[in-house]
Amino acid sequence: MKKTLATPGKANLPILSSQDQGWENILVEQFQQPPGEVNKHYNNEHSICLSLAPRPFRLLQIKGGRTHVGLHTRGDITVTPANEPFFERWDGDGHCLQIRIASDFIQNVAGIALGINAEQLQLLPEFRTRDPQIEALGMMLLSELKQENLGVQFYIESLTNVLAVHLLRQYSAPISRVTVFQGGLTERQLLEVLEYINEYLSLDIKLADLAQLLGISKFHFSHLFKQSIGITPYQYLLQQRVERAKELLKQTNRSIVDIALECGFNSHSHLSKQFRNFTGMTPTAYKAN
Predict the structure, then answer these.
(1) Is 148 helix (H, G, I), strand (E, B) or coil?
(2) Which of 11, 84, 93, 198 is such that its CA lies 20 to 30 A from the CA of 241?
(3) pLDDT tens across 112-151, in order?
(4) pTM for the predicted model, two decimal places
(5) Which tens digits make up the pLDDT trace of 257-288?
């Protein structure tokens, strides 16, 4: 049976919106749409879409030069960075909660709350993931949206701040061309260190190994490294190990124990703990998605 696509006008009308509720730095809207498609981008706003659909539906997404097609179920989340065009087509009940958060607000949070130079980071697009923390924040925002409480600005600000910090911690990465702070590592030094980490990710890399590459003390290296990319060497190492684990989980049928050792974790439980910290889910759940 041929399905009729939703018209562009109807496809873009929310059934609930915080537009007139005085919420600052964040726009929350609930959509319920028949099968349809959309082609747009948001200027200076990062977008998160949380599926509320009662039944799985097939979703085609194109953004950042990549295409993803798959079944989306209730609780699935997509992330689209600000100013990035994207196309979506869905063949089922497009019931979702869309959260748009101002990119300049994210930059302020990066500097004030995390001490990170936002110019060194970019938000990464995510086609489909599970994130219990974002889902919980989304449902709290939806609850406030339904109640239309006008005197809860402080509560909304608190939720927005928590969401911003979570996005920065879990969905951002150093930009390809890192701008080195004055007094930080030079570009050549930084590339040498990052290439070493990538090559020997499965080994027990120590801070002394990285400092020795550049012939400086461990303390001095740690300080310069964080100045250069905004996070500590240990945080960067864990981030890269989790990213490698994500690739292996999706691309191979190897056991989680083997993948843990391949990525430099000392056990299944060590990988699971760090994987959950970075992604909000276990390696087993990630592989099953």
Answers:
(1) coil
(2) 84
(3) 767 777 676 788 889 888 999 999 999 999 998 888 655 4
(4) 0.57
(5) 999 998 998 888 889 988 988 888 889 888 88
Angle of helix 233-251 versus helix 218-229 axis, rounded to 10: 60
- Rounded to the nearest 10 degrees, what angle do helices 207-214 and 233-251 cross at? 110
Measured CA to CA in angstroms, residue 6 lies from 13, 30, 70, 202 at distances of 11, 16, 20, 49
CA distance 233 to 209: 11
What six digits make up the tokens of 159?
């939720």
CATH code of the region 8-174: 2.60.120.10
Instruction: Give me the phi and psi of 44, to 5 degrees please.
Output: 60, 30
- Break the chain into its structural domains and give their ranges: 8-174, 187-288
| Domain 187-288 -> CATH class | mainly alpha
The SS3 of residue 37 is strand
Structure tokens at 146: 């339904």
pLDDT at 6 over 50: no
